[in-house]
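Hi support team,

I submitted a single chain yesterday and got back a structure, but I'm not sure I'm reading the token output correctly. Could someone confirm the output below corresponds to the sequence I sent? I've pasted both exactly as they appear in my results page.

Thanks,
R.
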Amino acid sequence: MTPTLVRNLRNADPSAPADTGTRARDWAEIQERMLAPLYEAVYDRLEVGAATRMLSLGCGSGLALLIAAARGAQVTGVDSDRERLALARARLLPDEGAEGAPAHRARLHESGLPPGAGADGAPYDLITVFEPIGCAAGDSEGLVPALEAALPLAARGATVVLTGWGPPERCATAPVLRVAARLTESARPPRPGGWRPTLRDDLEDVAARTGLRPDGSGRVSCPFGYADQESAVRGLLSTGLFDAAVRATDRSQVEKEVAEALHPYRRPDGTVWMPNVFRYLVCTT
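Hi R., thanks for writing in. Yes, this is the structure output for that exact sequence:
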């Protein structure tokens, strides 16, 4: 599967701060599908299907869950973003609560963890973390305790998949992400949390800290393709990677400088195309 050039058709004041609902929709409609090749590559490698009981940490608006469910997997998603989770629920459980609605093989939780993969509390045999790390300093700190809480719900020998950004020289988006660090640091003294180059062992470090055993890895091409510059700016800002820059300056300034950073990736027809490589690490409990 390759990412689709996506156009955001809503009209909005570009200088106005985006509310959480708007940003969640931008993520679901523009940005999330850019990682679909990563989801597909992992599922192909692990042969995800009807026998799979999957728990997705940071499931967002549910595209990775939807793809797994289409393969027959029993899926559970957890995310702290209420707006994204509402979109996931609309995708996966459109008839939830309706009289005569069929039983679903998907469950979604805003906070806390479910007891197990099904009503019988069966353990999960696959845990995925599809929110890539290795972009901002300290971006794995919240992942470690989340994994530690989830691992007791997994079967012995279960598979855990961690994902991260590839090397900066293989990610055309890296120079655009540096805009966030520069704007943040120009407004205040540098502090942990700014953009940093991906380190080779980011994923292995998380695995070691949570007691997981690496059992293979892979790289996947995930180009970021947008129908126009406006869609590219909205999609990138929906990731949350520019939040600190927005707080340090203002949204209109961030949008302007991100648009300028995108100029090298604009094609003659106005579309934006940025080749990227993402990495995944397969581990066992």
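A quick pointer for reading it: Residues 76 and 107 are 5 Å apart (CA to CA). Let us know if anything else looks off.

Best,
Support desk
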